[in-house]
Structure formats: structure tokens, C-alpha cells
Amino acid sequence: MRLERSTWPQVRSYFAEHDTVLLLFGSIEQHGRHNPLGTDLFAPLKLADLIEERLPDLLIAPALPFGSTPRFAEFPGTVDLGDELLRQVALRVCESLMSHGARHFVLLNGHGGNSKALGAAQLELARRGCRCAELDWWRMVRDIRPEWAGGHGGAQETSANLCIDPSLVDTGALAGEGLVDDLGPELPTTYFDTVRFKGVDVCVPRPTSEYAENGWMGDDNPREASAEWGRQMLSAVADWAAEFIPAFARAPLPMPA
């Protein structure tokens, strides 16, 4: 049941019997030369379709396409709301739905940079008597099957895009390394803002474009991506979510602070 396609009497009827809403959060940011800027949006949208097939009576709100992504601000096309504005938007959306009866919120998130702001909003809602759960699909697949773990714009996310729509991936741009040792061979870059020295990772904040000129990073080289990998991952997440959401909807609500 899609909120934007429903009439207000239909929504009133829904909240007369249910109090659970699925909300979608993405981002518009670079994901390597080969992936589109909407990578973090397309996965939640596809997952929402798959979840709706399994839970047709669940109320699903429209996706928020923009997120908090200052890390990639220098890459053309990236749109950054910042943590505080995203927190306010997420909270205001949930407050509006609360006024009509929502109390259990499931946040289907496609972007790791959103988690700080969404977590702050969820904590505030919990103090008001709500339950909130955040489903970060790329982390969930790692728990479901460890070999599905992936980095930013690597084979994991590229596979999801190939499953959703092969035309989203510029296969001619798959060549290129994910990371460069911008601090030299003694301090190789290991991931976001980290370098390694004698087996220990050290945080060295710097513009992402300095050490990830291509835009992607991680151990999962995007050249290893496949549509079948993406199909298996997204289907597994949808199957899991279709069992989790009804169980979460039965979780008792906290007393307002």
C-alpha cells in the first residue's frame, strides 16, 4: 500500500488497524565512474517493490532521494543535505505520520552517511513512545551471507544496479583502481579516511577525491559484479524483511519520556 497512491480515507482505515510504516531513504552521490549517482536510492526503491509483493498491506511512504553526504561534495552531481537537516526532515515526516496513528517506523536506508541523522531522529521518536528500526541493506546482506560484503560502489552495489536495470551501469568505465596511496607506500590508504601503518589503521581525514579518484573503494572489485549476485542479495533482504517487519510491528511500545 503506497502512501502517495492512497486516499486519505484509505490511510485513515489503515491506521485504524495498523501502526507500522516503511520509509525509504537514499542519497544522490558518486559511486564510481561506472555507477549512477542514484545508486543509494535505487536499491531501497527496488527493495520496497519486493517487500510490497510479500507484504501487500504494509503502508510504504515515498522515498527521500537526498541524504547527508558531505564526504563526496567535491564530485559533480552529489547533493548534500547535511546531518542536521536530514534529522529534521526525517523527524518531521515521522511526526506527521504519528499524528495519524503511526507508532512503529521501519527505515529502509540505502546510504551509510544517513545513519547518524536517522539514528538521532529515531532516538527522539523512541522518547515519544515509538519504536524505530533502521534496515541498512548493504550491511544486512553481509550478515545474511558474508561473501556478499562490499565497499562503496564496488561489486556489491554494482551487482544491485545490474539487477535493477543493466543500463544503470557504464560497463565501459569499470576499469580503474578503487584507492590510491596518496600518503605514500609507508601509509597505504585502506578505506574512508584511513591509512595503515604496521598493521594498525589510523584515521587521517582528507577529501575523498585524494585517495579515491575513481570514486569506488573496497575489496569487492566492481569488475566482479553480476546481475545474478544482485538478484540473490535483494531477494534475500526482501525475504528477511517480510518476516522481520510483522515481528517488529508486534514489539511493545515504550512509555513516552
Tell me the number of strands. 7
Determine Rg (CA atoms, Å): 19 Å
Proportion of β residues?
A: 5-15%
Question: What global shape is seen?
Answer: globular
**Low-confidence region ranges:** none
Helix content: 25-40%
User: Order of strands side by side in the largest beta sheet?
Assistant: 2-1-3-4
- Biggest sheet statistics: 4 strands, parallel
Mean pLDDT: 96
Spatial separation of the terminal alpha carbons: 32 Å
By DSSP (H or I, 4+ residues per run), the number of helices equals 8
Report on the architecture of this protein.
This protein has 257 residues and is α/β, with parallel strands linked by helices. Helix content is 39%, strand content 14%. The protein contains 8 helices and 7 strands; from the N terminus they run αβαβαβαβααβββαα. Strands 2-1-3-4 form a 4-stranded parallel sheet, sandwiched between helices. It is globular and about 60 Å long. The model has no long low-confidence stretch (mean pLDDT 96).
